[in-house]
Amino acid sequence: MTAALRKCSRQWYPAVAFLAHGGAEGVSAGALQARFGALPAPGAYELGGAGFTIEVSGDGLRLAGAPPPLDAEAARARLAREIGGADLRVFPVLDSTNEYVLSAGAAGAASGTELIVAAETQTRGRGRWGRAWASPPFMGLWFSWWCRARSLAPHLVAAAAGVGVLRGLVRAGAPGARLRWPNDIQLGGGKIGGILVECGAGGCAVGVGLNVRGDAAEYVDADRAPRRPMSIAQAAGAAPERDALLAFVCVEIVGAARAVASGRGAAVLDAWRAAQDLRGRRVCLRIKDRMRAGRVREVDPERGIRLDEHAEWFMPHAVLRVEEGCEE
Questions:
Q1: pLDDT band at 218 (very low <50, low <70, confident <90, very high)
Q2: What is the pLDDT of residues 254-272, one digit of tens each?
Q3: pTM of the model
């Protein structure tokens, strides 16, 4: 890293992602301006510890030295071998993969196959309660799966997704991850990702965000995050290939959800309980205009969370925030 590298600001994420998928030929300046308006200046940039260069190419721009973009074909081939194929759609830029999947799923897209949508970057990625989710190009996986199992309640879909993510991480060479209620993925003492389940007509969008490369604190709003943001590379010592990670995680999520939907999900739900990171820890639950403090006694996919000092159970939709080690 040299002083000549300038930080890639969020306003340039969409254009950079578009250039990443434009190949060695680049993209014409006219096409870029028509889609994004202002363009980043040619030069050397840095994003999450990765360097790349935006170069002039004919009448347009191209990207050089950046990590490779997502390869849909590589992930699609693995999905075909393990779950009988999938309608995998990879976009340079989307507003939100969950929004796309909710719309496409409601319209009956990919009937009979698993609809999975990934984006190199999102302009309106979000977590619980509409909180902004940073999704820079190259640095992570931002995708959604359309779960058609109408018999599954959203909290069971979320539990299956959590177990699927952990199993997929193991297959990708990043074991040891845990779940932190209600929707965080933890590894190496920090938050490497999250899950957001949103339901609509005919099913649920299961959104997954995983920080894969670089220093996550450089591209996540660390001052707004309740837990220290990390990437898989920081926590595990190396970043898995994103194409393989996408396929592994999707295969495991689909398999776990199918097991739960068919009545064979006891092992999945037991794995979800065993993976919970908060059991025994002292926390504060911020619930609208009040707060409950105590030590976590139980965490259950169907009932929520319960503290030693309080008999009541709290479901995820009622809890605005979970803070560790606090006093009421």
A1: confident
A2: 999 999 999 999 999 999 9
A3: 0.92
Instruction: List the domain boundaries for the chain.
Output: 6-64, 72-274, 282-324
Distance CA 65, CA 44 (A): 10
pLDDT of residue 320: 83
Phi, psi at residue 49, to the nearest 5°? 95, -10
Mean pLDDT of 197-225: 83
Label residue 270 exposed, middle or buried (CB < 10 Å: 0-12, 13-18, 19+): exposed
CATH topology of domain 72-274: BirA Bifunctional Protein; domain 2 (3.30.930)
Paired sense of beta strands 43-47 and 6-7, if any: parallel
Pairwise CA distance, residues 224 & 221, whole Å: 5
- 36, 52, 125, 228, 264 from 98: Cα distances, Å: 22, 29, 8, 24, 27
- Cβ contacts of 22 within 8 Å, gap of 6 or more: 62, 63
